[in-house]
Amino acid sequence: MIITPEELEIYKPDKKLKEKMDKTELFEKTLFEVESCFHSIRVVRNKVGVFLKYLETYQAGIIKTPCYSGNLPYINYFLIPYLMNKNIKDILLIGFGSGVLINQYETLFQNLKRIDVVDIEENILDIAKKYFNYNKTDKMNFYLQDGLIFLKTTKKKYDLVVVDVANNFGIDERFCNNDYLSLINSHLKKTGIFVSNLPSSRDIFNKKNKFILNLINNYKNYFNNVDIYNGETSNRVFYKTFFDIDKIVLDITNLILISYNKNYTIKKDEKIDRIIDISPYLEDFVRR
């Protein structure tokens, strides 16, 4: 079963703002296109930047505009673990994206030994190298495999596990159930941190948001701490850069869950100056 963002929507968008979005011309040019066993892939360049798309959904990319330059903004939440534990040595990333995050981790974590990257898409590594300036180092090990199969067969444990997966339409429910959470927990070190990206209504704690509320409760059965980030900074950047709209239009957000068993604290004055200003993203913390 696939969980699509649209089925999690509770509120309908403002009609005028939605019309403005629909009429915005991004002047998109296709740089690469292929139909693989798992995805309908395009790499496109438009007035905002260069992006990897599965069907019409942006999966990864690099934005270059006067108001924002960098990764797709929701991915910046994946840098928060650096503020929790700067001594991370072993990372597992399920879902490759553009490869930009991998190079960012290699820059940030001075004691990093390895990043194991798992992706089911056979074209993804070549795309990252050709279109997103990904530079592979000896610390990165790439596994062309289903992420769940990797979790079931590996014996490795990690300081940080990041899961950001999607197909053409949404997220496979296999990456939401109890068996999956149990596998993740079994591959984390005692001080390990788990980061996941999920679609949700922006009204996260609305009783109508049943799927996400149940999922958060399940997370709490496996982790002592589940920090919830509502993605509002990411949303504001997205609508401003793509559509020049200063309001959030759609009732869908990237919900970032950061889960762990050891107690960590993040100081609000912490910074990642070499990559982004992280402070607005920290303000999106809504609940543990």
Care to describe what's here?
With 288 residues, this protein is of the alpha/beta class. It has one domain: Vaccinia Virus protein VP39 (Rossmann fold), CATH 3.40.50.150. It contains 9 helices and 15 strands. The chain has helices at 15-23, 81-84, 100-108, 124-131, 147-153, 178-186, 210-222, 232-243, 279-282, and strands at 2-3, 29-35, 40-45, 49-54, 57-64, 69-71, 90-94, 114-119, 140-144, 158-163, 171-172, 188-200, 225-229, 253-260, 285-287. The strands form 3 sheets. Strands 9-8-7-10-12-14-13-15 form an 8-stranded mixed sheet, with helices on both faces. A 5-stranded antiparallel sheet has the order 2-3-4-5-6, with no helix packed on it. The longest helix is centred in the C-terminal third of the chain and has 13 residues, at 210-222. It is globular, with a radius of gyration of 18 Å. The model has no long low-confidence stretch (mean pLDDT 92).
Write a short abstract of this structure:
By secondary structure, the chain is an alpha/beta fold. The chain has nine helices and 15 strands.
Supply the key terms.
288 residues; alpha/beta; Rossmann fold; eight-stranded mixed beta sheet; five-stranded antiparallel beta sheet; 9 helices; 30% strand; globular
Mean pLDDT level: 92
**Total of DSSP H or I helical runs spanning 4+ residues:** 9
CATH homologous superfamily (4th level) name = Vaccinia Virus protein VP39
Quaternary state of this entry equals single chain
What class do helices, strands and sheet pairing give?
alpha/beta
Strand/helix succession: EHEEEEEHEHEHEHEEHEHEHEHE
What characterizes the major β-sheet? 8 strands, mixed
Per CATH, the class reads Alpha Beta
Task: Compute the separation of the termini in Å.
Answer: 28 Å
| Outline type | globular
Count all strands and give the number: 15
Radius of gyration: 18 Å
> Could you tell me the strand content as a percent range?
25-35%
At CATH level 3, the topology is: Rossmann fold
Side-by-side strand order of the widest sheet: 9-8-7-10-12-14-13-15
Low-confidence stretches: none
Total discrete domains? 1
* Helicity range: 25-40%
